[in-house]
Amino acid sequence: MLNNVVARARAGDLDACSRLVQATQVMVYAVALGVLRDPDMARDATQEAYLRAFRRLADLEEPGAFLSWLRRIVITVASSMRQARRTTLLRLDDVPIVPVLDEAETSWSEGQRQLLAGALLTLTGSERRLCDRRYHGHWSTARLAK
User: Fold this and answer.
1) Is the pLDDT of residue 51 over 80?
2) According to the model, what pLDDT value does residue 99 have?
3) Labelling 14: which of 72, 90, 103, 132 has CA 20 to 30 A away?
4) pLDDT tens digits, residue range 70-106?
């Protein structure tokens, strides 16, 4: 029965697409939640997975493989979202001296530069880009937020 619905959805039947969502939404959400461990993000991943699946439904050669194909899409989407939100945290004990210039200082000491370089290496690529744009590019907070 599901194979027939998949075939109709591939042919552009919107009612069939709706029936596929109804038949699989519990499984899709459960898989996303299992990967992300965050209900809000799992809902977002569910929506994104359905968007990807329906855009590429014509690529599915065997309607009987729909469930495993959809599950793979959900895992890929959720894994990408999990990786995108990953942050690196430093324990305060790991950085005994915080490299900060105060009002009395006008330049960095060599020790401060080394500490700062070490701290920057713990940031993700996107976090480093934000710091670079803020402090070297003099971007405003509003511009960075966009």
Assistant:
1) yes
2) 52
3) 72
4) 999 999 999 999 888 766 665 656 655 555 555 565 6
* Amino acid (1-letter code) at residue 123: L
Structure tokens that stand for 65 in this block: 């493989």
In this structure, what token pair is assigned to residue 16? 């069939």
How far is the C-alpha of 64 from the C-alpha of 142, rounded, in Å? Answer: 49
Contacts of 17 (CB under 8 A, 6+ apart): 9, 54
How far is 112 from 118, CA to CA, in rounded Å? 10
DSSP state for residue 92 in the 8-state scheme: G
Encoded tokens for 73: 């899409």
Contacts (Cβ under 8 Å, ≥6 apart) of 39 = 33
Task: Residue 17: name the closest of 48, 46, 44, 55 by CA.
Answer: 55
**Count of residues making up the chain:** 146
